[in-house]
C-alpha cells in the first residue's frame, strides 16, 4: 500500500471563508483500517454555528431570488468537478471511512449524480393556475424556497448523504449549513472546496465540524431563522430533533434506522438472489441503513441458498481499502465491532449455527470483522430485532407467503425491503403489502438519484432524491388576485 495523500490540517468553511473555530481547538480524524491519525479539523462550538447561521441568513435573499438556470449551472459545475477528481476524493473517503477504494469511487459518482439531477429539477419548479369561483378573480400558486436549511449527515456515506440534501436545497434556492459526522468530516470539507471553485456565492454553503453534536444541533434547532432540518442517522436522535423542531415549527426530513427483510421464494432465480444478497448485505461493510438484516428463505431452498451464500461471502477479501482486491474494509470504530460480535455471540448462544466467518480480527490494527453467515436464526435473537450494522447475514426459513409478509412487517421500522420471485402476481402482492418506503423486487441495489428515497413508520419522514426530494425544500404560496375585470 502506498499512501499518496498528505492531508494535514483542515479549516471550517463559514460564509465563504476558511477559518479556525472560536475555541482554536481541533480534533483528529482516524483511519479505521490502521488506527492512525490522518488529519485534524477545527472543533467548532456554538459560536461558530451562530456565525454560519448569520452567513446563511445574509445570503438567503439574493440566492433565493436568483434564476434557476444560474443555480443549475453551479450544480452542474460542481458535479463535473467531483467526477474529474473522483480518485482524489475517493482516496480521502477510504482513508477516513474505510470502504474499499472501488466503493468510494462509486460513492463519489453517486454523489455527483444528485447534483446533476437537481440541476435539471431546478429548471422545473412549476406553479399552477386554478379556476376561480368569481369571474373577477384569478388564483395562482407559486413555489418559493423555504429559506435557511441545515443538514446533519452520517459517516457511512460521507459524500452522497450531503449531496442528496445539498442538491435539492441549492436547486430550490435555499442556503444550507452542513454538520457532518465527526468521524468523517474531510469528505464534507472537500465538497465545500468544490462548490467554492464552482462559483457558489459566499454564505450559501457552510460546513461546520465538531465533536459536540448535541450543542451544535441545539443552535440550529433554537434559531427560528433556520426553517428546515434534514437528518440521516439513528431513530433515537431523529425523534429528539423532531421534538426540538416543534418549538420553531421547522420542517424536518428524517431518514432513520432500518431493519430490512430480504425474502427469497423457492421460484426465484437462485444465483441472482445470492448475488444480490451479497451486494445488499456487504455494501459498505453492512454499515448501511438499507442493508439486508433479516434474510428469509423458503424452506425448500434454504439449505442450498445458505451454502451458496456462505461460499460467496467467504471469498470476499477483508483489509485496508487502499489495497487492491479488497472487497470488505473495516468497520467505522471499535464500538461497531463490539456490537457485531455481541449479535453473533447472542445468536450462537440461542442456537444459531455459524456457516462462515464469525470472528473479529485481533492480530492486526483496524476494526475488522469477518463476513459472516448465520443459519437457523430465530425470532429470539438480537439480529432479528436490532440493526446489526455490520457484515452478518442472518438466515431464517419460512413456509408461506402470508407468513413471511407478517414476519417481515413485524417491526417498528420501514425503510427498505427486498424480495426475489418469478411470480408476477406475487411481485405485486408483496410490493403493495410490505410496509416499507423502498421495495427492491428482484433488485438488491435500488438506490438512484431520480427515485424517492425514504421510509415509513419509525424509519423516517420525507423523501430524498427525485422530484419529490425537491418539494421538501419548497413552500407553496397561494395568490388570490382580485379586480381582474375592473
Automatic annotation (TrEMBL):
The Aldehyde dehydrogenase domain covers which part of the protein? 18-479
Tell me which InterPro entries the record gives. Ald_DH/histidinol_DH, Ald_DH_C, Ald_DH_N, Aldehyde_DH_dom, Aldehyde_DH_Superfamily, Succ_semiAld_DH
Q: What Gene3D superfamilies would the database entry show? A: Aldehyde Dehydrogenase, Chain A, domain 1, Aldehyde Dehydrogenase, Chain A, domain 2
What does the entry give for GO biological process? gamma-aminobutyric acid catabolic process
GO MF annotations in UniProt: succinate-semialdehyde dehydrogenase (NAD+) activity
Transmembrane segment boundaries: none
Keywords from the UniProt entry: Oxidoreductase
Of which family is this protein a member?
A: Belongs to the aldehyde dehydrogenase family.
Cross-referenced PANTHER family: SUCCINATE-SEMIALDEHYDE DEHYDROGENASE, MITOCHONDRIAL
Question: Which protein, by its recorded name, is this?
Answer: Succinate-semialdehyde dehydrogenase (NADP(+))
